Structure formats: C-alpha cells, structure tokens
Amino acid sequence: MSSVIVHYQEIALKGKNRPWFMGRLVRNLRRALADLDVRAVRPLMGRIEVVLGPNATREAVGERIRRTFGVATFSYAARTGLDLEALAAAILGDLEGRACGSFRVSARRADKRFPLTSPQVEREVGGRIKAARGWKVDLEHAELVVHVELLSDEAFYSFGKERGPGGLPTGTAGKVVCLLSGGIDSPVAAYRLMKRGCTVTFVHFHSYPILSRASQEKARELAALLTTWQQRSRLHVVAFGEIQQQVVLAVPGPMRVVVYRRLMLRIAERIARAAGAQALVTGEVVGQVASQTLENLAVIGRVASLPLFRPLIGMDKEEITAEAIRIGTYPISIVPDQDCCTLFTPRNPQTRARLPQIEAAETALPIEALVEGAVREAAVEDFQFPLLGSKVVNGRSTWPQ
Questions:
Q1: Is there a contact between 80 and 157 (Cβ–Cβ < 8 Å)?
Q2: How many Å from the N-terminal Cα to the C-terminal Cα in the chain?
Q3: Architecture of domain 175-398
Q4: What is the pLDDT at residue 344?
Q5: Domain positions in the chain
Q6: Which CATH number, 1.20.1250.20, 3.30.2130.30, 3.30.420.270, 3.40.50.300, labels domain 3-163?
Q7: Whole-structure pTM over 0.85, yes or no?
Q8: Nearest to 262 by CA among 239, 244, 242
Q9: How, if at all, do strands 73-80 and 136-137 pair?
C-alpha cells in the first residue's frame, strides 16, 4: 500500500467555506507528517491522499493521522489506473495469502462519467474475488471489507478503515486560553476545545518556592502531550505563591478559595487578551469539590469579561477519567504533586459565596498590581510537534529549529 486515503465528515457540511477548512486540514496533515517519509499530501475529490515514501511505516503514519482533528476515517490504500481489469488484478494480488471467512466490496464512484455504477463495480470485483478465493459474500457482517474509490483518472482500493479523531481542523475556530492544573480535569477540557478546532494556550499557576516544582513539571508534560494533538502550543507558567500569601493576610479564611480563583481568571484573561484569544476554559465541574457549587462558580465567573467555557461542567469523575485515559493524559495527571490550590486552603471553604461580600473582601488587595506583576513575571514556553520541545531564554521561549 503506497497511500493513505483520508476522509472527513463534518467539513463536508461547511458549504462555501469547505475549501478553507479543507486547506487547514491538508496543512495540518503536512505538518503532522513532516518528519516522516511522506512525499505528498494532496486533496482529491472529497478526500485527501497521503502519498507514502518507501521508508514510511503504516504504524507511524497512522498514529499521526489519528491525532489530526478533522479526520473522520482513513485507509491504507493502493492506487491503480481507472480500468476494471487492472483494478481487480491488483486487488487479487494483494489478497494473495490472506485468510478470510467472509467479505464484501464497497465502491464509491466520485466521477459519474465512469461507465459502471457503484453497485455494478461491487458485483464485478466481488465476483472475481469470490471466484479466485472461494470466500463467502456477507453484505451485513463481513470479516473483510474491500473499499474501492473511483476518481476521474485513477482508482484506489483498501481493506478496511480506521477511525480518526473527528472534530474540526486545528486553527479553524480561533484561540482560547485554558487554565491548566496538574489534575485530571483541565487537560480533558483543553482537549475538548481542541477537537472543536480551537488553538489552546495554557496557563499554569504554581507556588514555588513555597511548594516544590512538581506541578510545573506535570504542566509541561501535559502541555507536551496535548501538543501532539494541536502541533503547536504555548504554556504560561505563573508564580502564584506570593499572591496567595497576600490573600491570606487580607481575606477571611472561608473566602480565600473563591478569591484565589477570581485572581487566576483575571490573570488568565490578561494573558488571553494579549494573545488575541477569544475565551477562557477551565476544567470545573458542578459539585466535584466543596468550592465548585453553583453559587461559587457564578461568583468566580463574574470576574471574567471574556466568555468562560466549562466543557466538563455536567460530567462525573468516572466519565472524565475515562476520557483522560483515552487521550493519554491520565498517567501524568495522577503523579503526586503539590498543587497551589492546596496551599493555604481553609478547613471549611465557603460553599455559597455572595458577590458583594467577595468584592468587599477584595478591596483589601492591590488587584491590578497583583495581576500586572503576575503576567509580567510569567515564564513562557513553546512546544511543537513533531520536533516537540521548548527553549526558554530569559523567561521567554522560541520554537525549536
């Protein structure tokens, strides 16, 4: 098999904007496969062909395509001329030595000028396979499906299909900023926005040197892994320990968690506006912890002027954990660390915060100075995949060369 045929689904519904979405998907596939022996990624009629070089392996190419949003399904395929005899002969040649209990042929005719209809192609090719191999035809539950795609001047055939991640191509839905902790929830929230075509920038809050660097390392590992889905990412690492100390001195204990999170949103929003992002994202879930009541979530969210997305809001922990396992973030998230959210946390945090009380407590803090200083002092690290990594210079970073 010398090609991979990529099919999309949701992009097909985009009407006049379809070419733009297609262009993004082609570009993303080229970038995802840039360090592999892939000779071309080219749009065809309603599909995309990835042309493999002699040193490309199915496993490596397939793994990259599975992490490219916008791909519905893909198949390892071979190309032939638009001639039924040549097509059937090539298929029979590739089936040599294969054992199979049942099969069927599924044909798609992209160019209606081809003299045979799709059902006629299926009968012709299927009849020759049955005569040559003696396999049973099963149109409902076939063990092997032979896919045939007929274009204007060439044909492709493949055996079975694999599922892609679906969604929309990265970069088609704007930028968002996600508050990334070292836990299970926020990486899943980021992934869900990526799947809808958003480019996600990460903001991680830490309390070093009061606590260890463990949460920072986890945030970097999570950002690196999530970058394998969106190819380029930026991580802002924000020191929050001194801010928490000032909150402890000025704010009554039960209110501190709500005030912490309002400050985090203010800082993240300042970063988002500088980056041209259009929304904020968190991994918050109703009732998951004592501080995440509807009342608290409402008071926390009031501080943001950008839209605030909570994509996991109605999920339970089992559902979130299952998705974290599926996308690969779970093993990193469960590594023990010292999260800044656990620092100076009161024994009995407020569960039904009232906005006037919280705003009154915040008057004792130099809010603008705290936000400005945190943004100014944040370390910024960039990640890229392939050639994943980052280089930090004076708290800033550049893309790997």
A1: yes
A2: 32
A3: 3-Layer(aba) Sandwich (3.40)
A4: 65
A5: 3-163, 175-398
A6: 3.30.2130.30
A7: yes
A8: 244
A9: unpaired
The residue assigned the tokens 């949103």 is: 265
- Residue 49 CA, chain-centre distance (Å), reads 22
Write out the two tokens for 296: 């608290």
Question: In terms of Cα–Cα distance, which of 282, 185, 179, 190 is closest to 238?
Answer: 179
**pLDDT value of residue 61:** 96
Nearest to 232 by CA among 38, 386, 395, 41: 386
For residues 26 and 136, what is the distance between their CA atoms, to the nearest angstrom?
38
SS3 at position 47: coil
CB 26 within 8 A of CB 38: no
Q: Cβ-count burial of 32 within 10 angstroms (0-12 exposed, 13-18 middle, 19+ buried)?
A: buried
Residue 110's pLDDT is 87
β-strand pairing of 162-163 with 73-80? antiparallel
Which element (helix H / strand E) includes 118? helix 118-133
What gap in Å lies between CA 131 and CA 133, rounded to an integer? 6
For residue 123, which phi and psi values (nearest 5 degrees)? Answer: -70, -40
